[in-house]
Amino acid sequence: AAETILYSFSSSAELNDALAHFILKAQKEAIDKHSRFTVAISGGSLPKTLTALIGNPGVKWDKWHVFFADERVVPLDHSDSNYLLAMNTLFSKVPLPSSQIHAIDTTLLDDLEELADAYEKELIHEFAQKDSARFPVFDLILLGTGPDGHTASLFPGHELLAEEDRWIAYIEDSPKPPPKRITFTFPVINHAARVAFVATGEGKKEVLHDILDEPEKGLPSSRVRPAWPGHLYWFVDDAASALVRYK
Ligand code: 6PG
After folding, report:
1. Ligand 1 centroid from CA 154, angstroms
2. Is the CB of residue 149 below 6 angstroms from any atom belonging to ligand 1?
3. Which of 74, 151, 155 to mutate to test the pocket of ligand 1 (most atoms within 8 A of CB)?
4. Do residues 221 and 145 touch, judged by C-beta distance below 8 A?
């Protein structure tokens, strides 16, 4: 696996600016290589960290294809929806064509397995013919981590941590509400060209130490290790990295 690159900033404004700069670099490499930029995002505080992209003339929104690393199974207009959060925070404010926002359309199907399958099919359609790989290779996956070390909707001790085949899975027993969720699996996350975590605030300092300094604990976020030639980045603030020895 590639090395982990940790950037720590004293303010969230600096973090967000550096993250925007990093995203523009990833965007350029992706467009040079295959004329589009495939990005997956998660929920929580992540979309807000991307607001430095709004109005930035370097962003080629017409080349972006956005996917959801995880989604809560609630209607898309529900206040718990990661799609709604991303739309309200970012995508309604930028010229990203709606056909390039690949929502997990929770309104289509009641059955969680069918919903996961439908999103997996959408990914196969978008990636498999183009890359003919066993797993999709995202240009960038942006993740958060919870104080328990979960990422996307992959929670400590859950059977999904061992998933090796599926691209998209569902859970019905999320310890973080709401309980029903759809999520990328580790094989998808770890095939990405780049994965970047974003974590801020004192409330994350213990878990960041565990994730980065004690990977043998096996927390879900420690299991994010993009396969070579992929890269793993952490964008954090000094409050969150206070206890991290790996610097
Ligand atoms: C979700 C998220 C989840 C989130 C982390 C971190 O839908 O709940 O995708 O994985 O990214 O819980 O959340 P915060 O950034 O808000 O701490």
Report:
1. 10
2. no
3. 151
4. yes
42 to each of 57, 130, 131, 231, how far by Cα in Å?
24, 24, 23, 18
Closest to 1 (Cα-Cα) out of 236, 215, 227, 231: 227
Count CB-CB contacts under 10 A for residue 7.
Answer: 16
Closest CA to 136 of 151, 123, 121: 123
Indicate if ipTM > 0.85: yes
Domains of the chain (ranges, CATH numbers)? 4-53+60-237 (3.40.50.1360)
Give kind and range of the element (H or E) at residue 71. Answer: strand 70-72
Q: Which one-letter DSSP state was computed for residue 223?
A: G
Helices (H), 2-100: 12-34, 46-49, 82-89
Q: How confident is the model at residue 131 (pLDDT cuts 50, 70, 90)?
A: low
Tokens of 125: 């359609």
What pLDDT digit, counting tens, does each position of 152-207 carry?
Answer: 999 999 999 999 999 999 999 999 999 999 999 999 999 999 999 999 999 999 99
Contacts of 21 (CB under 8 A, 6+ apart): none
Length of the chain: 247
